[in-house]
Write a structure and sequence with these properties.
- The complex is a heterotetramer.
- By secondary structure, chain A is of the alpha/beta class.
- Chain A has a single domain, classed as Rossmann fold (3-Layer(aba) Sandwich), CATH 3.40.50.
- Chain A is built from four helices and four strands.
- In chain A, strands 2-1-3-4 form a four-stranded parallel β-sheet, with helices on both faces.
- Helices cover about 25% and strands about 25% of the residues of chain B.
- In chain B, the strands form seven sheets. In chain B, strands 3-2-1-11-22 form a five-stranded parallel β-sheet, with helices on one face. A five-stranded parallel β-sheet of chain B has the order 13-20-14-15-16. In chain B, strands 4-5-10 form a three-stranded antiparallel β-sheet.
- In chain B, helix 6 packs parallel to helix 7.
- Chain B is globular and about 65 Å long.
- In chain C, about 45% of the residues lie in helices and about 10% in strands.
- Chain C has 19 helices and seven strands.
- Chain C is globular, with a radius of gyration of 20 Å.
- Chain D has 23 helices and 52 strands.
- Chain D is globular, with a radius of gyration of 31 Å.
- Classes of the chains: A alpha/beta, B alpha/beta, C alpha/beta, D alpha/beta.
- Chains in contact: A-C, A-D, B-C, C-D.
Chain lengths: ~140, ~425, ~375, ~1000
């Protein structure tokens, strides 16, 4: 079963990078669904856990390079939160590679494509989300 | 078949029943646990709704009862056994030693002032003052005979020396006697519920939180403060009092029944407090204002309008204390304005429930009668035999068979007396 | 369960509207908009929709103050729990704190095919075993450590201290590698479906270790096992809180708690105190430490005030006011406050970070206090 | 002589970064702008750069938002692929004739989908944008992010095979399109036609054009650029292999009397940048820069140069290579004379020539048409004190066409020119601009969501991959979806009308468009649904082209499934969308300038000229600042005189309220509504202003080294100038030491003005006493641009320049009264002892000590060296991230007088952009704080970079976070930091995002 990936892309850099990959017709696997957020600093640890809870195999968070953040320090906050999320995942027994944080600028379309390809391969080797098709009942 | 009657409990009901029976020419034995008759009514300051001084209207009856030739008053005594059945009961009575010869003691009280150890809590005054090892139960005690608290008495002998009548005998022995009666009337009254179990109200932790009965003693002229409302913490007169109803009553965790008298009692005390101290602010926290007796509602209306007593429909959640002023602070949900409020007052009076007196279970077993689920005496039939217990020949009246106020208790006492006479008459025929 | 059944189940119809519950409720005292009495009133008069949509039902701390004091014995706490389950079905929830990461974690732990790796904190000098009579249930401590170390609370110290104490008295407790959250918050926010899964999972795991007695350091786990699991799964092992276990040991004379020169005061956790009636064992253990001064707060034992927030929902300005009030009361008693529940420690420590002037109180967990008094040191 | 009736419009010639910035400033200040660009797309040379220095930002990332702004601005009319033919009239009323060269494509119809480009069979023409490193077809898009995004036909080579016409559904291609002449009527002209880079083939010895592996710096940029011909792989032209050693040769065509004697100012720093990019790409590559003087004088450039040396290991060799030869067609041999005079020959795989800047080739006729003078180098002639004014009134200049400069200076000059034009035409402000009006908004609160889904085929781009009909059926099955429509081009004009119709007909209260990227098309669709009476925030886009069909061309089934998922996720979010009200803030129409030096006074005058009240605050007792101590300037006019002229203009101007001897006590409020509390010797006053401009200037460093305070024969340059002015100089031998206190550990920056002052004073000394011996001990002589002439003049006058190494500083000793200076001359490598009568130290320029306190009050950041930190080094040099506060002059960093003046008028222009409006609109999707849930823990305040959140004590002992919606930028970081969930970021709430995650996982 193909791994399913949800990607949180920041509007100013990585979302534009993804667009550029499209404009340049760089092909990458269709496993990813992109959710646009204004800044990587907007991604809550609960979004990451919710994704795994409902059976998604991989979470990708992309933001501007350090120092490039449109909101100055949003990406630094994202780093702290991903660090915490990884600690929780480690205790939960979820493989750490299921969560990735990448800095992708608006002109790095190719990097975006290669990150997706790499991530899909990683997830294939790690296997499907052990939590299976989540049946969480309440929001 | 014997015409004599045993009356257990020397409160107002017991006294009234004895007087009525004696009036009919019947021989009455009146057994009272406490060294004096008078019961709880003696401890009250005033009675509602008239506001008469309680002891004033009780003392004459006590004297009449004590001095009646047909009535043998056995104080400081307990019923130990009953055998036989209606018309022919054999009753064992244990007369516990007073260590004072009732005959000789004139009640002059010299011995009381001679006793050097004044550090025991005075039961009558709800431990608001202390008494010596030898003491008179209360001023108007009947019989007006002192009693020695042998347990704490160190036998220094001062009282013996002082007593001209030579009435004090520290080695007096208990005496068991047996009497033969045709009918028994039980009127052993009630006790006041101990609210320390309700931790949230802080009784026992905060000095200025007292029970209704303690309040009675405080404001009673013969009480520990000579009638001055001096609150326990700093002996000053508070400028506001809050009476809290249903403490332990209408509460399934304590006593599910309604004690019937507290609402009126609080209103009475509030009015009297206003009379004594015109600037006093009085609050009554109630759930339902139960002024159902004759003249009661008007009494409550007067309290509201003339005496500015403020009635708050709420049962407080918690009482804390202001550390400096020691003023109790009441946290309550005013169910009319639907707001949680805080009220600081000088004194809090907990109108506690009135519960069956201690030892009622043992007495019931001795008498072979049953108790109801609230541990009052079970009555045979509320409509047709409201005064008969579950055993023929034994009658119950007053608070010990269910909550009621004084007029009802007296009415039932007279009823019980008549019923006893009727029983004897039927058996006799 | 419709609101009508809830009223019957909890005997809410006995309510005399005397107001004693609202008068006692710490939330109502600060939050004018919340009143247990009016909530029951709405249920009685059939305002179902309005009640289920009212966010207030998620502010209740389920601390049992009102339930214990209600003259008509209305079980308001159970009433709230049922109301929340019903509200959840119609799509209403409370305001989840921390972005809802906690409830997400718990639901994940309800998933049978999860394989956790949660024993990272067990260093070499902590002796635990796979099988055995005595089992120590650690609940969510590893996750709390990750989430709350930034406010200076190391929840795993509780686990380490507890194991050290047990080791000291010769016990190598079983600590399960894949133990799940006890599901307390799922139960109390009405997610019974996931709660049932977690209950069965946990009991199955415990049975697998052959444990006869399960020791809890967290009162919420203790109460959940003791009172809420039985409806879903039966258990053939004893349940005991660490304070009770140590108190027994004092009677058997088996334990010496060393000494500690410090004045402390004790916060009764609602679940341990009012819910389970365990007041004395913790006090007994604490006061058996030589040199320690245990001073009671104004509100303690049955009158103890809750730490302000429950089930990670509606942690708002009112909870903060309650917490600050509680810290002031603790400060008046002593400089150190002993908590016996990881959540009390977290919530009160967080309140201390408030920007408004606050009473500085050292907050220390019960097991950590005992371990340090016994000189078991704080090396991990 | 002013024209009778002024016109409230301006034409900007040249669509590079300067032209773009000038157009945006003017269009936002109430003027109609015509932006004329000769090539098919605006963007200029900056669009061709990969990265920019000194931050290493990706150039197109920071440029394309500005391109989109210009492309969608209602008051800017873009005229591309057109030339200016004739200009008549004068200041305030010009008539300009323009020849629109044919594109052979109808700009209205073309959607830039690019189908025609792939259909054209002839792909063999050199792509100009990619410096001919790749080839393009006859029909092409200039570059990926081109604005306007319209194709162009290279009619010359086109064989009219018709493939493109067939494929183009929009029918936009018209191969017989005719050129068209139009005439426009404007009040002012701004010339920003940029520069051409020097063609090095003329320098035969470097072999450009002969050897494949000798390329220019701009070609190198395209090579390393990710969207370039090699996709960012550094493949050298000859064998497409990655070189493992590269040489950069500086001053190719600059500082060379045979080509261009001036210094092109930017090549040193861009060489360092390209070296760093290479090292970041692959640290193993050996990079060597051959230079004469490392002129990294701009803000942050010296630290950038040091990092290249120390961190990246770039090698720097001081010499000018004599020749470049290719040996056995693999290696390039560079011959040069090293410092010790030995002839060296190093081999490299690639040689990059740092070519200089020269005026554009057609500038000759352009200047004649405009009637403006050029200077001797063919650049536009300007003066030191009016850097943006040309010789003709009403025509202004900015950018590299005025003089070679880098991007931040060009941007500043562009705003400066805009400000001059705005002053000229301030009476006509707002006359020709159009303000879009919309119908009243429908109230949708409480209604059940009724979502309209519009799915785009984008011609073949989406439809060719995704099975659109299947997706349409699927969309219809989704909960709350009331209407689904499929279009070939949802972004086309007619599709907008269909959307508005559908909203009416089906009473839709949410709209979802599944098409391309919201980054370019969201504003368009939002204004469409606003025209149908829907709040613009009830709209979301699903990116099913750039992030789906285009990237899964060969996986049609998966792409279709993915499209369904993406639409399902966006509909899940749409259900929870709420209407957001747009926040407007009233503007106080007055400005406040801090600092009464030349910068502050210039800003004050420009604002006053445009009719605004100005409060000018000066700490000292009188105005003038540092320039009062400067008597001479190399361009002739004395700074002192110019400052005095400014002082009396300021004092006479009724609109300028001067407060001397005054300190700022406190600053409150926000953009449009600042309240500044000032203290004028004792009495405090509150001043209201819409904007604040910081012009606090700098101070001279009092040297601790070289016995400065121990001997009165040791002076600083300013003290020397004072002596020269009062003719008190009677010294025979004078030694000057450069870089005193600059470019060291403590102050790693270059103070920029000391080389200029040293040469000026040295020339003045020679003028007063020709036989004096003047020695200048220097590390690098930094006289960028045309000031290079004075450096040559100084050498001409016999002033001796000795270069010392940073590690072997000159030693100044005093034995029995004789001052001795011992220096090791790097060129000869020998010690040199001089006994000067006078020792002059070129002391550093320090930031003003008051900056620290001021920065705290204004809540704007400082760099460690105390100069202010602007919003963006490159494109927003005089702005801060907080709106309404601007910066100019030495407070920004050490700079020359003309740069200060450009920045000053630029600050004025940015200020007018706000002051010219009655209301300033703020971002709608901002945060809201639930005051019940907020516990006042302050964690949000800590993470907010814009001070949009502040803890307020609304009741005693109770703090609550309150948001100033105007300042909130909507990043949402605080809502994650908030533990109690009190903060919601509108339009990106937790519930909305969780709903998208659940939708993706098929939960509901």
């Amino acid at each position: 079963m193909d791994p399913k990936i949800v990607a949180f892309c920041c509007n100013w850099c990585s979302y534009a990078g993804a667009d550029l990959a499209g404009v340049s017709r760089m092909q990458y696997p269709p496993n990813v669904r992109i959710i646009k957020v204004m800044c990587s600093g907007r991604v809550e640890p609960s979004f990451i856990l919710r994704a795994f809870e409902v059976g998604i195999d991989g979470v990708l968070i992309t933001g501007c390079h350090i120092g490039d953040c449109h909101y100055v320090s949003g990406n630094l906050r994202a780093e702290d939160r991903v660090k915490m999320a990884k600690e929780l995942m480690k205790t939960l027994g979820l493989e750490e590679q299921r969560l990735r944080l990448e800095w992708i600028s608006a002109s790095e379309g190719e990097k975006f494509a290669s990150v997706i390809k790499e991530f899909v391969e990683d997830l294939k080797s790690v296997g499907p989300n052990p939590l299976g098709k989540g049946e969480a009942s309440c929001p | 078949m014997v015409d004599d009657v045993l009356v257990i409990g020397g409160g107002v009901a017991g006294i009234q029943a004895s007087i009525d029976l004696a009036g009919r020419g019947l021989k009455v034995y009146l057994v009272e646990r406490f060294p004096s008759i008078g019961g709880k009514m003696a401890q009250l300051d005033k009675t509602f709704p008239t506001g008469d001084c309680s002891i004033c209207i009780l003392a004459p009856k006590m004297m009449e009862c004590f001095s009646h030739e047909n009535i043998d008053v056995l104080t400081h005594a307990e019923v130990k056994g009953v055998s036989g059945n209606a018309g022919d009961f054999r009753v064992k009575i244990l007369k516990k030693p007073r260590y004072v010869d009732e005959e000789k003691c004139t009640g002059c009280g010299d011995c009381v002032s001679a006793c050097p150890y004044i550090n025991l809590p005075d039961e009558f005054d709800m431990a608001l003052r202390s008494r010596g090892n030898i003491f008179i139960p209360f001023l108007q005690a009947v019989p007006r005979v002192v009693m020695v608290d042998r347990e704490h008495c160190v036998k220094c002998g001062n009282c013996q020396v002082i007593c001209d009548a030579g009435a004090i005998d520290l080695y007096q022995k208990p005496e068991e006697i047996e009497i033969h009666v045709g009918a028994i009337i039980v009127a052993c009254g009630f006790d006041s519920f101990d609210p320390s179990g309700i931790k949230e109200y802080g009784y026992g932790r905060y000095k200025n939180v007292i029970t209704a009965l303690e309040y009675e003693r405080l404001v009673c002229a013969s009480g520990p403060t000579g009638g001055h409302l001096d609150r326990p913490s700093d002996k000053k007169t508070p400028n506001s009092i809050a009476f809290i109803q249903c403490v332990g009553s209408r509460d399934v965790n304590h006593n599910p029944y309604c004690s019937s008298v507290c609402c009126m009692h609080a209103t009475k005390e509030a009015i009297l407090a206003k009379e004594h101290y015109p600037s006093m602010e009085n609050y009554i926290f109630y759930t339902d204002m139960r002024a159902f007796g004759k003249g009661f509602q008007e009494y409550v209306d007067r309290a509201k309008n003339e005496y500015e007593v403020r009635y708050i429909r709420s049962k407080p959640g918690e009482i804390t204390e202001d550390k400096e002023t020691k003023n109790p602070v009441i946290w309550y949900d005013d169910t009319v304005t639907r707001q949680v409020k805080r009220l600081e007052v000088g004194l809090v009076v907990l109108c506690t429930a009135l519960v069956p007196s201690k030892g009622i279970k043992e007495l019931a077993d001795v008498l072979g009668v049953e108790l109801d689920k609230n541990r009052f005496f079970k009555i045979a039939d509320p409509l047709y035999a409201p005064l008969d217990s579950s055993r023929e020949g034994i009658l119950v009246c007053g608070y010990c068979q269910g909550p009621k106020d004084i007029p009802e208790a007296v009415t039932q006492a007279k009823g019980a007396a008549a019923r006893a006479a009727e029983v004897l008459a039927c058996l006799g025929a | 369960m419709s609101l009508e059944n809830i009223v019957n189940e909890t005997k809410a119809y006995y309510c005399l509207e005397c107001g004693k519950c609202t008068g006692s409720c710490p939330i109502s005292r600060v939050n004018k908009g919340y009143s247990p009495r009016l909530t029951v009133e709405k249920a009685l008069l059939g305002f179902d929709k309005e009640l289920l949509a009212d966010g207030g039902i998620w502010s209740c701390m389920t601390c049992n103050l009102c339930k214990d004091r209600c003259p008509s014995n209305v079980d308001y706490t159970k009433f709230i729990r049922y109301a929340r389950a019903e509200a959840l079905k119609t799509g209403y929830t409370g305001n989840c704190t921390h972005g809802g990461v906690l409830s997400s974690l718990m639901r994940i732990m309800g998933n049978p095919n999860l394989k956790q790796d949660r024993l990272g904190w067990v260093s070499d000098n902590l002796k635990i075993s796979e099988k055995g009579d005595i089992l120590y249930f650690t609940g969510c401590l590893p996750y709390f450590e990750t989430l709350f170390k930034d406010i200076g609370v190391n929840s795993l110290d509780i686990a380490r201290s507890t194991v050290k104490i047990l080791n000291r008295i010769g016990i190598k407790p079983v600590v399960m590698p894949d133990e799940r959250c006890c599901g307390h918050d799922l139960f109390w926010t009405g997610d019974l479906e996931n709660f049932e899964k977690i209950a069965k999972l946990n009991v199955g795991l415990i049975r697998g270790t052959g444990a006869k007695k399960v020791i809890f350091s967290c009162p919420e786990c203790y109460r959940t096992f003791k009172q809420d699991y039985s409806e879903y799964v039966d258990m053939d092992f004893e349940l005991v809180h660490i304070s009770e276990f140590l108190a027994e040991k004092i009677d058997e004379g088996k334990i010496d708690f060393g000494s500690l020169e410090e004045d402390v005061t004790y916060q009764d956790p609602c679940r341990l105190g009012r819910h389970l009636g365990v007041y004395d064992p913790p006090r007994k253990v604490i006061s058996s430490i030589q040199g320690i001064g245990l001073i009671e707060m104004e509100h303690s034992r049955e009158r103890s005030i809750c730490c302000g927030t429950s089930t990670w929902t509606n942690c708002d300005r009112f909870s903060e006011q309650i917490q600050k009030e509680r810290l002031k009361e603790a400060k008046a008693a002593a400089d150190t406050l002993i908590t016996a529940c990881p959540k009390c420690q977290i919530h009160l420590s967080c309140a201390m970070k408030s920007k408004t002037p606050i009473d500085e109180v050292k907050i220390k967990d019960f097991s950590v206090l005992v371990a340090s008094a016994m000189g078991l040191g704080d090396d991990p | 002589m002013q024209a009778s009736k002024k016109v409230g419009a301006v034409i900007v010639v040249g669509g590079g970064i300067s032209g773009i910035q000038a157009s945006l400033d003017l269009a936002d200040s109430g003027f109609k702008v015509y932006l004329l660009e000769k090539s098919p797309s605006i963007g200029g040379v900056m669009a061709q750069l990969d990265k920019t220095f000194p931050t290493g930002d990706c150039s197109i990332c920071i440029l394309s938002p500005k391109l989109v702004d210009v492309g969608t601005h209602p008051n800017i009319e873009l005229i591309t692929n057109a030339d200016l033919t004739e200009v008549s009239g004068n200041a305030g009323d010009f008539r300009v004739k323009i020849l629109k060269k044919p594109r052979y494509v109808d700009e209205e119809k073309c959607t830039g989908c690019g189908d025609c480009v792939s259909a054209c069979p002839y792909i063999n023409l050199p792509d100009e944008f990619d410096m001919a490193l790749r080839s393009r077809g006859n029909i092409f898009i200039p570059f990926l992010q081109a604005v306007p995004r319209v194709v162009m036909v290279d009619r010359e080579h086109c064989v009219k095979c018709g493939n493109c016409q067939v494929i183009c559904d929009a029918g936009a291609i018209d191969l017989y399109q005719k050129p068209e002449e139009i005439e426009i009527h404007v009040g002012a002209i701004i010339v920003a036609c940029g520069f051409d880079s020097f063609d090095p083939s003329g320098i035969k010895e470097y072999g450009y054009g002969r050897y494949k592996n000798v390329i220019t710096a701009l070609e190198y940029e395209r090579l390393v650029c990710a969207s370039g011909p090699t996709g960012g792989h550094l493949d050298r032209p000859s064998d497409k292999k990655t070189p493992n050693s590269i040489a950069f040769i500086q001053c190719v065509g600059s500082r060379d009397v045979n080509h261009n004697p001036y210094c092109s100012s930017v090549c040193c720093t861009y060489a360092v940048k390209e070296a760093i990019m290479t090292k970041e790409h692959d640290p193993a590559i050996d990079v060597n820069i051959f230079y004469m003087d490392m002129r990294t004088h701009g803000k942050g450039f010296e630290e950038y140069y040091n990092r290249a040396k120390e961190e990246y290991g770039v090698r720097f060799t001081r010499c000018r290579p004599s020749s470049v030869e290719e040996i056995d067609s693999r290696k390039m041999l560079i011959k040069y004379e090293n410092e010790d005079g030995k002839l060296m020959g190093d081999e490299f795989d690639l040689v990059v020539l740092s070519v200089g800047l020269k005026p554009p080739k057609e500038v000759k006729e352009l200047s004649e048409k405009l009637g403006i003078d050029l200077n001797r180098y063919g650049f536009c002639s300007t003066s030191e004190y009016s850097p943006v004014e040309t010789s003709k009134q009403g025509i202004y200049v900015c950018g590299a066409f005025a003089s070679p400069k880098d991007i931040p200076e060009s941007v500043a000059q562009a705003s400066g020119a805009a400000s001059k034009a705005s002053s000229l035409l301030s009476s006509e402000r707002g006359t020709l601009v159009v303000e879009k009006s919309y119908p009243p908004e429908k109230d949708v609160v409480g209604e059940d969501p009724r979502v309209g889904v519009f799915i785009c085929n984008c011609g073949v781009n989406i439809g060719g991959v995704v099975d659109i009909p299947e997706v349409v059926e699927y969309a219809k099955s989704l909960l709350n979806v009331a209407y689904v429509e499929e279009d070939t081009y949802t972004c086309s004009r007619d599709a907008q009308d269909r959307i508005k119709g559908a909203i009416e007909e089906h009473d839709l209260n949410r709209v979802v468009v599944a098409s391309c990227t919201p980054r370019t098309h969201e504003p368009l669709f939002r204004s469409t649904i606003r025209e149908a009476g829907l709040n613009p925030y009830l709209f979301e886009m699903a990116n099913i082209r750039d992030q789906c069909s285009w990237v899964h061309l060969h996986e049609k089934a998966e792409a279709t499934e993915k499209t369904k998922d993406l639409i399902k996720m966006i509909v899940a979010k749409a259900r929870l969308l709420e209407p957001l009200e747009r926040i407007f803030v009233e503007v106080t129409h007055s400005g406040l300038v801090i600092g009464g030096g030349i910068a502050g006074m210039t800003v004050a005058l420009e604002l006053a000229n445009q009719g605004y009240e100005v409060h000018l605050i000066e700490k000292e007792k009188e105005l003038g600042g540092n320039l009062r101590r400067l008597y001479y300037s190399l361009s002739g006019v004395s700074p002192r005189e110019h400052v005095n002229k400014l002082i009396d203009a300021v004092t006479k101007n009724s609109k300028i309220h001067v407060y001397t001897g005054t300190n700022i006590v406190d600053v409150g409020g926000y953009v449009g509504n600042f309240i500044v509390k000032i203290d004028q010797d004792g009495d405090e006053k509150d001043l209201a202003s819409g904007v604040i401009v910081i012009a606090t200037g700098g101070v001279e460093y009092k040297p601790e080294e070289y016995l400065y305070s121990e001997d009165d024969r040791v002076l600083t340059q300013l003290e020397l100038e004072e002596k020269l002015a009062n003719n008190e100089l009677n010294a025979k031998t004078i030694v000057m030491i450069q870089c005193v206190g600059s470019r060291n550990e403590e102050r790693p920056y270059c103070s920029r003005v000391c080389c200029y002052d040293a040469i000026k004073n040295a020339l003045k000394i020679k003028e007063k006493s020709p036989d004096a011996n003047v020695y200048v001990l220097y590390r690098d002589i930094r006289t960028p641009g045309f000031t290079e002439d004075y450096y040559r003049k100084a050498r001409d006058e016999g002033i001796l320049f000795l270069r010392y190494d940073e590690k072997e500083k000159p030693e100044v000793t005093l034995d029995d009264g004789i001052l001795k200076v011992l220096v090791v001359d790097r060129t000869l490598g020998r010690e040199f002892l001089i006994k000067p009568d006078l020792l002059v130290l070129s002391a550093a320029v320090l930031s003003h000590p008051g900056n620290k306190e001021l920065s705290e009050m204004l809540k704007v950041p400082l760099r460690e060296d105390g100069f202010f930190l602007e919003a963006h080094v490159k494109l927003r040099p005089i702005d801060f991230s907080n709106d309404g506060i601007f910066l100019c002059g030495l407070a920004h960093s050490p700079k020359s007088i003309d740069e200060t003046l450009s920045q000053a008028s630029a600050a004025a222009s940015r200020a007018v952009k706000i002051l010219s409006k009655d209301r300033v609109e703020a971002e709608g999707a901002v945060i809201s704080v639930d005051e019940i849930l907020c516990r006042g823990c302050g964690r949000c305040e800590e993470v907010c970079e814009y001070n949009a959140l502040e803890l307020k004590e609304i009741e005693p002992g109770r703090l609550v976070a309150q948001v100033k919606k105007v300042l909130c930028k909507g990043c949402g970081t605080c809502s994650v930091a908030c533990p109690s969930g009190a903060i919601t970021l509108k339009h990106f709430t937790d519930k909305q995002i969780i709903a998208m995650i659940d939708a993706m996982a098929g939960i509901f």
